[in-house]
Automatic annotation (TrEMBL):
InterPro entries from the UniProt entry: Glyco_trans_4-like_N
GO molecular function, one term: glycosyltransferase activity
Species of provenance: Halostagnicola kamekurae
Protein name: Glycosyltransferase involved in cell wall bisynthesis
Residue ranges of every copy of the Glycosyltransferase subfamily 4-like N-terminal domain listed in the record: 87-203
Protein keywords: Membrane, Transferase, Transmembrane, Transmembrane helix
TM region positions: 80-99, 111-130
SUPFAM superfamilies documented for this protein: UDP-Glycosyltransferase/glycogen phosphorylase
Amino acid sequence: MFAHTMTDKKCLYISYTGLTEPLGKSQILGYLEQIDTDLDIHILSFEKSPERTDLQKVESRIQDQNIEWHHIERCRGPTLLSTFMDIFVGFLLSLYIYAKNGFDLVHARSYIPMMISLPLAVFSTTNIIFDIRGFWIDERVDRNSIDPDGRLYTYLKRIEHLLFQQADVVIALTKASRDIITQKYSVKPDNIYIIPTCVDTEKFEMSDNSPDGPFLLGYVGTVNEWHHFDEVLDCYHLLSEQVDESCFKIYNKGDRNKIQREIEKYPKNMDNIEIKSVSHSEMPKKYSELDAGIFFYKDTYSKKATCPTKMGEFLSTGTPCIGNSGVGDVEDILEQNQVGVAISEFSEKEKREAITELLEIIDDPYSNQRCRNVAINQLSLESGSNILQDIYTQHHTKSVS
């Protein structure tokens, strides 16, 4: 490898997620702001109809960073056509930025940015980082957006194989997905790094719940087709039979009617349920009020590559949680660290046993600090940024034989 110093290094970061979106602020800028400031980073992002004030807020946030921001608005229209146009425009713009600046690294965040990066992967000596974020094509299958028996799926899976083959480095969210990538796409294990979905643990404080009040179970987020929300409600129903005073707090935006219809299926013990919509800035405080958290995802192929953000947020406040196996590394993180329970089947017997085990963890006076430590050591922005820093340092140029 050629010897480079940090001041020589430049990285082009391509993201289909806009920096004006909450996810872009937390999962892109949140990491990059903690990377060594001697690294020059150019971000090319696709924004969803941004307001000028939102753009100005991002520009103000990065003005003291070694970050130069190039942004374009996403194309509108039919999904397939607009996505193709975004790839084409992104390809042209990335080539222009590359030709003007020259880069040691290209960091492609998810599949569409990696498609944009393919010409650079094939025709340049720049190292390409494929930050997969999940199995994007199969996620569309789970959402019923793509027919797994159709031609589009076949074509996209061929492209997916090409993306993995052209990547010099792959970043995945879970160890479970690393095993799949190694076996299915013949990527060397040494070229795969795991950075889970991380949270800013400094925004979360330890739980301030008191043993004198009712037991508070919490659910955060959507109840869409990826989730087993019926099983979540069933678990609370069983919990309410074991714990005399209990309350279920559901923090959700937009699904109140759907949630209410699900609750009405239960004849009793479901009165102490609150459905609230709160702002993103209020959520750290809400997490800290809970005794336990709960989340269940459907065990599909794409979920092997998923790391639930809410798991890190629960643990950041010292709150044990109950999840399900088959979803990324949830089972390993919760059970190996004794910070929660993972259900493998949704039988009534297993759910009752899981609730009993969760209550035993909560009764352990050291469980809150144990949860917090797991969040800081494994799921914090600092820990994730340290891994990303190592990747940038080790792979800033291709080796030359």
